[in-house]
Amino acid sequence: MKTYIVVGAGILGASTAYHLAKAGANVTLVDRKDSGRATDAAAGIVCPWLSQRRNQAWYTLAKNGAKYYTSLIKQLEADGERDTGYSQVGAISLHTEDVKLDQMEERAYKRRHKAPEIGEITRLTPAATNHLFPPLDAQYGSVHISGAARVNGRALRQSLVNGARKQGASILQADASLVYEENIVTGIKAGEKMLRSDHVIVTAGAWANELLQPLGIRFLVTHQKAQIVHLHLPDTDTSNWPVVMPPNDQYILTFEGGRVVVGATHENGTGFDDRVTAGGLHEIFDKALSVAPGLTNSTVLETRVGFRPFTPGFLPVIGEMPGYEGLFIANGLGASGLTVGPYLGSELAKLALGKATEIDLRHYEVAGALE
């Protein structure tokens, strides 16, 4: 039996380890639990079909990622994982201009032909929109997408880790470094412990370059800081409210128990500064309360900070590391981590196992992220 070590237990690494373990592989998942992991901070929106991004390679990943959730959640539930953090509550994409709503609706119908998982597409009046999400300003009409979903990143990641463990995977908290002989990666050093393996898979997100530099590899991953605020609406059942996609660059979504999540910031050049800042909070509240003034008197519960990893062209990469044996990598999920991560992890596991992938790997070559 071949052995695999996955370094980095965010959503991508946890999914990779889970799918490897499900296939019967000998797997060790290693993570040092850095502050600012994107998955831990994230509250995900699974609704890629209204995106105006023109990069088809990105859209293919996002579309496939959204579709894959149906299968993944069934697998996890069969493994006894009930708290997956995933719920198909639908989404409402807002605007005040009818022409913009017309364009959204047209885009959704056009894409539903190849993505029937979009579900029902419904144009809603401002009154109907407000009925679905009462805190919203009454001026917004919307397009409702029934197949959209929300994801609690922490809960889903933990379900994948639990599922991997149930399939025999070992989980290790440690600071890992790669062990190699010339151009062959033979394992890792985890603290004082040496672990040998046939393949090492790096899913370390914003910290990947730190891991690869000792090999002489300059991996071009950057990161963007995100601050995300959690609020509470007392005596309010928010469990089935739809995800809200405003006409700005932020979002609003809810979970059970009156919890409302608003954000996120998109901060460049911050390094790994994981502080909650006055400027970040100002930006979040300014945008959120202009869209949903009914949140003005909500309670502030917490603010989470995460670092989204980006590779060149804002397009993820996946594959074997050029010039090295035994080393695989995937990275660059950016703001789409919870949409794309579980699916890309399943594809990465296939690749490492020597199986055919669904995606065309030529669109996501690792060489494009090397200096």
TrEMBL record:
Keywords: Flavoprotein, Oxidoreductase. It holds the Pfam family DAO. One of its GO terms (cellular component) is cytoplasm. One of its GO terms (molecular function) is oxidoreductase activity. Its cofactor is FAD. InterPro entries: FAD-dep_OxRdtase, FAD/NAD-bd_sf. SUPFAM superfamilies: FAD-linked reductases, C-terminal domain, FAD/NAD(P)-binding domain. It comes from the Bacteria. This is Oxidoreductase. Residues 4-351 form the FAD dependent oxidoreductase domain. The lineage of its organism: Bacteria, Bacillati, Bacillota, Bacilli, Bacillales. Belongs to the DadA oxidoreductase family. It comes from Domibacillus mangrovi.
